[in-house]
User: What shape does this take?
Amino acid sequence: MVGSFVEIGADCEGGFAGRLGFRRMRSGRRRWSDAEKGRIVRESFEPGAVVNEVARRHGITPQQLTGWRREARQGRLVLIEEPEAEFVPLAIEDANSAASLTPMIAIAVGRVVVRACPSTPSTRIAEIAAALEARL
Assistant: This one.
């Protein structure tokens, strides 16, 4: 198994910054952790979710996701429960000191800081925060 992760960059155009939770095998196949499978399957069971769309969003085939869903229904795969979102204190800087900088939203969790453009949808920021929380 190759020990590298795939890094994804972000920009102000709505991109996502993060690290995907799978390992690539020497054969080129990916190996997903049970926790990551559980999160994806739980997402596919949400009301209104479409298996094809969830699979495409996570870079897997619908058949693979259907197999994982079958495992979950048979009790062989545990669905991961996401904790409720929590609010954290917000620090606002003096507008004069940051006037020359592009405004950004910064989310800091431990040693990780994610910066997003102010135009980033709040749902996307919540997704990023949940992904960071899940990795801790």
Summary: Strands lie at 7-8, 18-19, 22-24, 30-32, 105-109, 112-116. Residues 122-135 form the longest helix (14 residues). The first strand starts at residue 7 and ends at 8.
